[in-house]
Specification:
Elements lengths: L1 H37 L42 E10 L2 E11 L6 E7 L2 H4 L4 E8 L2 E2 L3 E3 L2 E10 L4 E11 L10 E3 L4 E2 L1 E2 L3 E2 L13 E9 L1 E3 L3 E3 L2 E5 L5 E4 L1
Parallel strand pairs: 1-13
Antiparallel strand pairs: 1-2, 2-8, 3-7, 3-10, 4-5, 4-8, 6-7, 9-17, 11-12, 13-16, 14-17, 15-16
């Protein structure tokens, strides 16, 4: 009996060892499974041999090339006022464009430049201003019958100059202005300044004509008695009293 009990105890002890081994193996298997798959743990990489990296010095910043200067239009200032005009005559209308390079040859500062529109002294609205610019920019102006006034954007000091461009139309009225085929004092003429503007000057009075040079092109059905340099081109001095002859 005692021998049988001893044998059973021995068998039970062996069984416990086997069960303990199985349980330990199961725990190790479960732990490994959790370690590699559930927690996504990856093995550490092997040490990588570091090689020397070749370095280069940073490039020196090259300065940007300087921009080329923008050419500016240089118009030499003449000694006296210079009128450059083009007239195109057809039937009862003359279209004109005139560029005046104006110089303040006086001792006072000027704030505007008035013009005479002499055809309007014979027939109101015989000459109308279509467009006017000052130093290349469209400018404000006022027409009062036979006077055209151009306020200056910047006052004109003695010796300074400006460029005024005028486009105008001359309408020919039968029995009045141009009825005999002659159009006198056709161009808008800048008034003379002597301590003040001489706005009541008669066009035929040369004493009221500021020194100026004229270069005029006439096309269409008209000509004039000015000195002619070539076909349709005329030039001269003190030509405020320009007379255009209709063919």
């Amino acid at each position: 009996m005692e021998k049988r009990d001893r044998k059973e105890r021995k068998n039970a002890k062996v069984i416990r060892r086997i069960l303990t081994g199985i349980i330990c193996a199961a725990l190790i298997f479960i732990g490994a499974f959790l370690w590699f798959f559930v927690f996504e743990v990856t093995p550490l990489p092997k040490a990588i041999k570091q090689e020397a990296v070749e370095t280069t010095s940073a490039p020196t910043a090259a300065p940007e090339p300087a921009p080329e200067p923008v050419p500016t239009l240089y118009i030499p200032k003449p000694e006296v006022n210079t009128y450059t005009a083009k007239l195109w005559a057809k039937e009862e209308t003359i279209k004109g464009s005139m560029r005046l390079h104006y110089i303040n040859n006086g001792a006072d500062t000027l704030y505007s430049v008035p013009f005479h529109l002499y055809p309007n002294t014979v027939t109101p609205d015989a000459i109308t201003v279509d467009r006017l610019s000052l130093d290349g920019k469209e400018a404000y102006y006022v027409v009062d019958n036979d006077k055209l006034n151009v306020p200056l954007a910047v006052e004109l000091m003695p010796g300074e100059d400006c460029v005024i461009f005028v486009e105008f139309t001359v309408n020919l009225y039968k029995g009045q202005y141009g009825s005999d085929g002659k159009l006198m004092y056709l161009l808008p003429a800048a008034a003379v300044y002597e301590h003040d503007w001489l706005l009541d000057a008669r066009p035929e009075d040369v004493n009221y004509t500021a020194p100026a040079t004229y270069s005029i092109i006439i096309e269409g059905e008209a000509s004039c008695g000015m000195p002619q340099s070539e076909e349709g081109h005329y030039y001269g001095e003190n030509m405020q009293g320009l007379t255009v002859i209709l063919h």
